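Can anyone check this?
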Amino acid sequence: MIRSIVLVAVIAATCAAQQATIDIDQYKKSNKHTFTERAYTVGKHTYRVVNIRPIGSSDTNCISAVVLDKRKYVLFDVEVSSGPFGMIVPSAQPVAGGLIIVKASPYDGKLFLILPSGKVVTLPGAQVFADTAGSCVYCVWENDKTFRLTVFDYKNLKLVLTTAGIAEPKQWFTDGFTYGFVSSDGVYYTVDFLQKAIVKGEKPASGLTAVSYIVDLDKTDRASCCGPAVMKK
């Protein structure tokens, strides 16, 4: 049983709706859908991650779910005309003993972070990287054409930083302690936990290492979405 579910932020959108009462197993024998399922054991629990994709023409691009026993979190991607969609379980899993699941969507991306304790954290945004030394995940998300950043400390289960709006990050960097990014207009910003702010400044001339998102959504093949190719075996 899930001990607790931490909902840090949820972005409402008409294209992705939660419906926990739907019987997803009915699609297993459907000749109108492809049904992809992977089971992942985290701690004492086994979680099912499901992608159901209609065959042929449909206004629904994908039905996806995270399932534990009789509990499930179901999302629908409806009329997604561009960009990736559905559940993605990346090969890179930087949180030791945990599981990161990315819900791709051009409108309502999410991160599901399943911890060894059985806790499930849901964060907004599908552009994600982890600072394993500092036990934080960084989530970049867009809402109403405004980019935002959420930083969550998964070791201590607390929200470290959330912002009203940031410049669009084009490349992240770290010096091994702090993180920063170059924006789309070439300006360098640093994430300052002491000020709880994104601080504009000069990019250091040396000592930085480039940081990549766990899933590069810009390079994700749309044709492979909502299928087995995007789910870690």
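Reply from J.R.: I decoded it. The chain is about 0% helix and 45% strand.
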